[in-house]
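Handout, section 4.2: multi-component inputs.
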Amino acid sequence: MIVLKTKDLKKVYQQGSEVEVHALQGVDIEIEQGEFVAIVGTSGSGKTTLLNMIGGLDYSSKGSVTILDTDIETLKDKELTIFRRRNIGFVFQNYNLISTLNVYENIVLPLQLDGKQIDVEFVDNIIDTLKLKEKIHTVPLNLSGGQQQRVAIARALVNKPAIILADEPTGNLDSKTSMEVIELLKMSAAKYQQTIIVVTHSEEIAQLCDRIIRIEDGLVG
Ligand SMILES: Nc1ncnc2c1ncn2[C@@H]1O[C@H](COP(=O)(O)OP(=O)(O)O)[C@@H](O)[C@H]1O
Ligand SMILES: [Mg+2]
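Output:
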């Protein structure tokens, strides 16, 4: 089953009144459920722009993004917010955890925001998979970077979203911890049939993924 499809996706940024930046120049990609994919490219190649379009964080200039059966750019602001919450999980370079909540509370937050019952068994399973059992009462300040990123991954998984988008998820981690985090993402993709897209400039990280999509000057090769 195809969970994500972009068609002739373009993004032009206006810089001042004169200069246009063509950040995406017609991107076509298709991703199947359960795939663990890397989008790799140098700095400025358009990775974050592409992720922002796929995640519905910004509108494209042309083309379409279809997630499951929904062309997300046809959604109104409020519908898009709800769609995003239910169908897209985000993992960022700087973890974006809520500092006043402990690990467990951070992980179940997406369920609570959506007014959903907590599936205790599934949440416990995720906590085990991400090796966070001993830390559930700890606040983010008292966690290492690698532990914080594991919490962010658990939080992204908890909703069973159509796609998890991870933008340079190991950007703040040392290389050993980076490999561990990527291995855990990979294991999660396999275990939960979870589609995961990792955006990275690192060839080493990309090589750990099941499929590599290369982007250069806003074009996918
Ligand atoms: N908000 C913006 N306004 C103007 N130009 C932007 C904006 N965001 C990104 N760009 C430009 O678009 C291109 C792609 O950027 P980006 O998607 O951030 O690349 P990457 O994530 O691969 O480093 C770059 O030339 C960048 O300078
Ligand atoms: Mg970027």
